[in-house]
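Fig. S4 source data, part A: sequence.
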Amino acid sequence: MSGKIITIGGVEFDLQIIIVIIIGTVIPMLDWYGHNLTGTKAYDRIIWYFIIPMLTIVLLFREPVADFGFQIGNWRVGLIWTAVVCAAMAVILYFVARTPAMQAYYQARAPESVLRLIYITGVDLFGWEFLWRGFMLFAFARAFGPGAAILLQAVPFALLHLGKPEMETLTTLFGGIGFGFIAWQSQSFFYPFLIHWFVASFTMLIASGKIF
């Protein structure tokens, strides 16, 4: 389906981009309105954000999933970025996560068990990262080029943080751009996922007082 163009009223539309934008818009809406599939939000998000895009790629687009960042990619580049960013963010978050707004937000939401917190955060973010840094990023890069794609995928990602502490939300556009850049450099969504998993888990652990 890649590159298939339809014309409506003299305007050309890329059918694959239409589908990607619809999925990338409607799925977060369904998630936001709490459509319960499994009884656990993190497992629901695996279905919404990972399984549905993957089925779209395989069954509808009929393309290799590696073309949408589902691969190890350039693991050297990916691991270097992961190590450097996680180390830098650990220092920053050690102080930021202790602010009253962050503590109030995450103390009410963090699971009691440290292992449960780390596990469920990873499950929750796996599909989330694939939708933005895999499915949308690589589809947009074909249509608009990688620079525009990196910026575009960061916009809905940032907007979906509304309701979180203001300091965190205001940084997510830039965080999303950074994640997109790393995904493109490594040709894989996996490394932004690892970084996001670390950042989210470390933030909750610090803010909820479970470590340090």
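Fig. S4 source data, part B ends here. The mean pLDDT is 94.
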